[in-house]
Model the fold of this input.
Amino acid sequence: MLQKKKSHRLRPKVAAIGSRFALALAGAWLLLTCGIDKPCPNLIIVLVDTLRADHLSYHGYGRQTSPHLDRFAGESLTFLNHYAHASRTGPSVASLFTGLYPRSHGVLNPLEARDAKGILSEEQTTLAEILASHGYSSHGIVTNVNVSSRFGFGQGFASYTSLERGSRIDIADLELAPPFFLYLHYMEPHSPYNAPEPFRSVWIDPDYEGPVTGRHRQLDHIVAGELVPNAEDQSQLTALYDQEIRYFDYQFAKLLETLESRALLDNTILLVTADHGEELFDHGSVLHGYTLYEEQLHVPFILRDPRIENPMRVSAITRQVDVLPTLLELMGVSYDGTLQGRSLVPQINGEAGDPTGDSGVFAQTRLNAVKKVKSRSLLADGWKLIVSDLPEPGHELYHIPTDPEEQHNLATSNTAMAVKMRRRMRDLIQSLPLATEEQVDLTNEEKEELRSLGYIR
Done:
């Protein structure tokens, strides 16, 4: 057990934010005190399931996958090198909600067995619980069963609704009494890749006659090596994925319209991020959860605070565990529990330096689906080490600045750096408390839903 549920007192932290940020928040000092005449800022987190950062047009992607998100990023704080701590939904969202690494929040392997699933323990304290203790009303709408309240993710929420995959998220009639926290979990572009028209046919080749359809079962066959796509097949599958992004972008535009029509944007911090990415033959396969390469861990992170007038693109490396302490500082909310990330307010202030400190970016995955895998990675000072236990022991070393696509394994040619990174990873792991993993038995309906998404085969 890492920590007890605590009561938290509100303590404005503007003085700790820094002079430049205080100037950017001119006139907002009283706002952060959350008084009767000055309401606390609302918070909305939009999480886009399975969205890799490098397939967004504002990241330089060739296709215009995200025109509305691009405009939003141009008016916001855009963190260009943001990383997940797992290539699975459960561990990643748990890190976002708790500010802890998967090792320390306990959602390490959600589906080790076919009939049970790991959960986020009630011993952990979530962002919704912290904000609830400060008078916030929290609401969640999710479209991925992996983060349903059944598996512990509804802790601290006044309402937490799980919709079927493919359902549209609509907040037009949702009662939102400020101050509120709203968590919206969009499933697109998670497989199966089947965006509705007019997005279904944006980039696919209309003359394509190959086998690729974007169905999840077919993607499992590719992972298992039972189907080997050629270059034309791979191009078609990538187009199907990109069309899903364009469909989410459309939904995001509708969300912004609703927020504007309800006059909620002027006092709301709005954050857009993802839980993990997706492989599209970058390393010979597809889907997520089986590896820890950049296409799996590099995710978007865009933050709009209406009190910060000047947009900014932050190039420093940032992590999921940094999000919660950043939000708490921006909102003036104190918390005396355990957090393993750092506030990014110094980077928002324009300060140089690595916010990850000596830790770097640690990630891990354990999966028992089409293949059984267990691996961990560390990104630090430009070097990326991946250590695998399953399906077979091994390690890889990449220099990301010169090899961003991780195509040249330097583990044998630079043994000194490999040894240094292994020691650094070992020391970090030993410094992180290990939480007890808890699980619940799955119902037949839950098994079938998880099977339809490829989590159980």
Residues 14-359 form a domain with the Alkaline Phosphatase, subunit A fold (CATH 3.40.720.10). Confidence is low (pLDDT under 50) at residues 1-33. The CA atoms of residues 4 and 344 lie 26 Å apart. The chain has one domain: 14-359.
